[in-house]
Design brief:
Oligomer: single chain
Organism: Bradyrhizobium hipponense
Catalytic activity: ATP + protein L-histidine = ADP + protein N-phospho-L-histidine
Shape: rod-shaped
Protein name: histidine kinase
Radius of gyration: 49 Å
Strand order of the largest sheet: 2-4-5-7-6
Largest sheet: 5 strands, mixed
EC number: 2.7.13.3
GO molecular function, one term: phosphorelay sensor kinase activity
Length: 531
């Protein structure tokens, strides 16, 4: 038997990453879908809301020009009454006025009612029919056989006047404008063409050309009105989106403020709840570590007590750092400002950390400028900044490395502090990480002495409270330098000496009058001597 065919290995290709569409593309796609749906449900190929607004503007235009149209109809009826019998002219005038009154009343009713898609279609049809009757009435009077004696120029002028007025009034409803002007133009063109003369052929062509021009003009007016409505709708939509975004942002801000208050309350409560048992743990563990009440039966218990005490101290320091950072972020950290010596604080911190650095074989160099005046600052905050920076340098500097502490003047007249080490350094793309709360770089994660990632953020925020600058420079496998500057406003310069001599405590003898400088020969005790 032949061996079974081996099953082919199926290799699954990595799926191509599908990029999520941006907010602008999603908004544009939703707008296109909405426009397509609106065009399918609309009778004019536009949005239903735009149909109602265009009809509203059409009705308002008709009402605003109602007296002008009425005057035109009456003047035409009177003029034609001179050329034909008065009764037909009066009948035509009455019919035109009836159509005009029906148009006006329809416009008023439409404006008073609430618009809906169904009602908009009904009113649109009604307006088109009324405009068609309006155009047919004008056609009837212009091609009346009795008016053959009237010159073609006057008829052409009257036709152009009727077409122009009708086109302008019905520009927001192009189909109504066409219904009102096409019967007049076509009838006049046929009337001119039936005479058979060349001049009348030219007039017929001019009539059709005038109809096309005014229809195109009405279409352009309709397009500009439609563009204005679209711009207004987009503006309203943008305002609505902005208001919605503002409401969302306000709600998010309120939630953030509530969360911040809850965090502050939680930290304040937990600090009390944690410090109370920690004090007992630290106290009893120190007693047990020091063997105050006698030696332990098992010597390893002393080591365990030391570990408990060290862990408690570490936890207490961590709690204090978290509380300090929360107060700084909440804006509740108050500076206890006084006149302090920057060089003195740095030297004290060096003395405190010297034993720890010596145990790791690290040499700390001091480069201080002498005779520097004091700073107006918070001594505890500056001490905490120096200790945080120095402890970080000792932590990440290898055995046998070096650290430089510098303090001096800045170019603007302020004072600066610099802590530079020969440690492992920080990658450039991780500098913003280590400056963030609880942020740790890759070297910190690999280090055996991991911290909470709060030392640098606390130091930076404390310097910001003093109005100074905090600059972190680092190169991988070369070292790190942190430069802290204080503004000149915090430097307490010594007062300049007085340029004038101080006034004497007693007036000189030369300044006394002559009569006061003469010796007095009378005895001091002259009372009762008679002299």
């Amino acid at each position: 038997m032949s061996k079974a065919a081996e099953k082919p290995e199926v290799v699954q290709l990595p799926a191509e990453p599908v990029s999520a569409p941006s907010a602008s593309s999603r908004r544009a796609a939703a707008q296109r879908v909405r426009e397509a749906r609106d065009k399918l449900t609309s009778t004019s190929g536009t949005r239903p809301a735009f149909d109602a607004e265009l009809l509203r503007q059409y009705a308002q235009t008709r009402l605003s020009a109602s007296y002008v149209v009425m005057l035109l109809v009456v003047a035409t009826g009177v003029l034609f009454g001179l050329w034909m019998q008065p009764i037909p002219a009066a009948a035509w005038t009455a019919g035109m006025l009836c159509i005009h009154v029906a148009m006006t009343r329809s416009c008023r009713r439409f404006l008073s009612e609430t618009s809906s898609p169904t009602a908009t279609r009904v009113w649109r049809t009604r307006f088109v029919v009324l405009d068609l009757l309006y155009g047919l009435c004008w056609m009837a009077i212009l091609i009346h056989p009795v008016l053959d004696t009237v010159t073609e120029t006057l008829m052409m002028f009257l036709m152009l006047l009727v077409i122009a007025v009708s086109s302008m009034l019905a520009a927001n409803l192009p189909i109504a404008a066409l219904a009102a002007t096409a019967p007049v133009a076509v009838a006049m063109a046929l009337s001119f063409a039936m005479t058979g003369s060349l001049d009348n052929y030219i007039l017929a062509a001019l009539a059709l050309s005038a109809e096309g021009y005014f229809v195109l003009l009405a279409h352009q007016l309709h397009s500009s009105t439609f563009a204005t409505l679209e711009a207004r709708a987009e503006k309203d939509a943008l305002i609505g989106e902005l208001e919605q975004a503002k409401a969302i942002s306000d709600e998010a801000r309120h939630r953030a403020e509530a969360a911040n208050v809850a965090k502050s309350r939680f930290l304040a409560q937990m600090s009390h709840e944690l410090r109370t048992p920690l004090n007992a743990i630290l106290g009893f563990s120190e007693v047990m570590k020091s063997e105050i009440f006698g030696a332990h039966a098992v010597p390893v218990y002393k080591e365990y007590s030391g570990d408990i005490h060290n862990s408690g101290v570490h936890l207490l320091n961590l709690i204090n750092e978290i509380l300090d950072l929360s107060r700084i972020e909440a804006g509740r950290y108050e500076l206890n400002e006084e006149a302090v010596s920057l060089v003195g604080i740095v030297a004290d911190c060096h003395h405190l950390m010297k034993l720890r650095a010596s145990s790791r074989g690290i040499t700390i160099h001091e480069v201080f400028e002498q005779g520097m005046p004091r700073l107006w600052a918070d001594e505890r905050a500056i001490r905490q900044v120096v200790l945080n920076l120095l402890s970080n340098s000792i932590k990440f500097t290898p055995q046998g490395g070096e650290i430089w502490l510098k303090a001096g003047w800045t170019a603007s007249g302020g004072q600066y502090l610099s802590v530079k080490d020969t440690g492992s350094g920080i990658p450039e793309d991780e500098i913003h990480v280590v400056l963030a709360s609880f942020g740790q770089g890759s070297n910190s994660i690999k280090s055996a002495e991991q911290g909470a990632g709060l030392g640098l953020p606390i130091a930076k925020n404390l310097i910001d409270l003093h109005g100074g600058t905090f600059t972190l420079k680092s190169k991988l496998r070369i070292g790190t330098e942190v430069i802290v500057t204080f503004p000149p406003e915090r430097v307490m310069s010594a007062l300049a000496p007085l340029s004038e001599d101080a006034p004497p405590l007693q007036p000189e003898s030369s300044a006394m009058p002559d009569e006061k400088r003469r010796p007095r020969h009378k005895p001091i005790m002259s009372a009762g001597t008679g002299s």
